[in-house]
Write the structure tokens for this entry.
Amino acid sequence: MTLITPKRFTIADYHRLGEVGLLHEGDRIELIRGELLSMSPKGTAHSFCTMRLFRLLDRLLGEAVTLRCQEPIAIPPDSQPEPDIVITQGRDTDYLDHHPYPADVLLAIEVADSSLDYDRTVKLELYAEAGIAHYWIADVNSRQMECYSQPYRSAQGQCSYQTRHIVLVGQPLAVPGFAAATLDLGQIFP
């Protein structure tokens, strides 16, 4: 019996699929560890939280950083996830010829309703392995923010974050690296 090995894609392969017309801009697909994965449909609560959070961060941080909403980041060689919100250093024009790399990312945020388990496992491990210093999960259903920091790799090779902090509605949440910029979660969750 012959075993069939699935084709793994690099970021370059993924872009070539778009160039030859096999993937289209509106397709809800992201490249994770060489696999093309279909993204969960966005519910109205997810969309509401994402836009509110993006607007609040934009008001708080202004031109000090670049904010990206549901845009790719590049994690070579084989991942190009699309976090709901990413805060990167530098200006928009710094990313004209490439998507931000993990070293550019100050904070990655996933807004989770139906994708909570996926965001707590696959995405968390991917971002930790890439060395993204801060990762938040906006848990729409529980109306709380899970804040992860200090990525590490265990002796067994597993990647995660050393610190997990839960912030509830009514508690201030400081944006990492911007102590004066605090969020009120009551303005984010419906």
